[in-house]
Task: structure prediction
Amino acid sequence: MSNLLRQIYYVAWGDMMFMRHNFLNILIMSIMSPILYLIAFGFGLRTGTTDIGVSYVSFVIPGIVALSSLNSSFSSTSTRMNVQRLYYRSFDEMMMCPLSLHAIVWGKCMLGLVRGLIACFILYALGLGLGAGGIGGMELELTPMFVVCTVLSCIVFSFLGMAAALLAKSHQSMATFNSLIILPMTFLCGTFFSVSALHPVFQTILYCLPLTYSSELIRSAALPDFLEFDWLCLLGLILWGVAFYTIDYWLLKTRKV
Amino acid sequence: MGDIIVIEDLVKMFDGKTAVDHLDLRIREGELFGFLGPNGAGKTTTVRCVATLTNFDSGTITVDGYNLRRNPVEAKSRMGVIQQQVSLDKDLTIRENMISHAMYHMMGKAERDARIRELSDLFGLEEYLDKPVDSLSGGWKKRAAIVCAMLHSPRVLFLDEPTSGLDINARRLLWDVVRKLHADGTTIVLTTHYIEEAEALCDRVGIIDHGRIIALDTPQRLCEGVGSVAVEYLEGGKTQYRYFGTREDANAFASTIDTGVDVTIRKTNLEDVFVELTGKSVGGGK
Ligand SMILES: Nc1ncnc2c1ncn2[C@@H]1O[C@H](COP(=O)(O)OP(=O)(O)OP(=O)(O)O)[C@@H](O)[C@H]1O
Ligand SMILES: [Mg+2]
Result:
């Protein structure tokens, strides 16, 4: 076990150095879009009270947290791996080394996890600050379950990013994946509106996407006075994580090129 | 000594095209093995299969007794590979690349720092250590890549065209290092298009063409195989080569050529063998 942890640290070390070199860039990149979403949807739309009894700002902030975990974790893991694999070829160098594949999957998703967490917590701190100042989002709370669910969500989307990077044959196919899978998820998966308000057919479709579980889950953890904690969504998200992990492991094991 | 690398019936296809075609090859422990062949013959692909960089379609590979499919981690820990393309992480500095590499091989901090210092001294890299990869010229990047591959003192070192892009000083230095590693018992598999180098260095040479080994022996015996004496002369604007077992036969043949034509009689070298066997001049073209 301790050997596995050490290997994970070793695999992640280079990515952490990369982050250190580009810290400011990364910081700006990871909070820019969530803040824009917050301004546009949270304050721009201002649709009063939602059907669960909280203001729309309080409703939408947990959704944007889930969204940032997807955006940040997915894109940092996939972009970095894609570049290392297709352009630098340093990914090959790592694959030649006596590392366990489990360590590679975990180690390579650390960058996404850390960046995702930075984005999510900055945004949430902003939300709580606005609430404390009486501007909006007064109902939000920082609960232990919120932290757990956000971490889980970042890990799941990091695993997804890794799968996408391992499947991509070129930078272009990465972009296609982004606009076909990631972009629709961003807007549809219960981030800006409640999935339960939709027609059952759409609901079924949306429950086939991992971000739906993540946003419902994080919302239920952030608004404990208004929503019951959604254990089913937690289970769902964990299953997504297991599935992506298995895919990553399998892709590494059966690498063709 | 036994065989440290055993490749049996290796097949590797790319989209229905065979790159390595039922290749059998045994590399003895401690030998310096030269792997020659025209462009696209399958050298890099073979090395990549052994280095676990790509899956192969069929066949078995064992490294130091460990089957590559069943015990990849043990097999990997015994190998170091200098790839044909430089493959450093360009977002990191040279030193960080080296540290990463040492970490992947589970080296402790003290050992790692000592090795990095020793090897970067040897290759004159100290002043570049904390520079980003892209601020170095191609040859210096290659040197850094070479250091990375040697950090963990592998039992088997693969060098896929290590000298391409290196200046003469670096090339000589590399050969000195290779000789020293060889003397210390490291098994070395060397791919190169500089055939004189292979001839001077290698214990045994394998020539590969279209994914198959077409000749495998010591450089000397390979030369004897085509004829130890070469006659080189110009005919119809093209240089012609003929090979003979003895100097007498060569002289006899040379005397039949027009007196107006320049004729050279010399010892056969590995390049002649290569051209005879593969039918292409080194560096491509018919
Ligand atoms: N990733 C790939 N996809 C498709 N075909 C490939 C790939 N890599 C190699 N090949 C093909 O496999 C064959 C062998 O290539 P390889 O790179 O092993 O040659 P090589 O002997 O190393 O040549 P060179 O001397 O030019 O380095 C070539 O025909 C090449 O086109
Ligand atoms: Mg090659």
Q: What stands out?
A: Residues 2-253 of chain A form one domain.
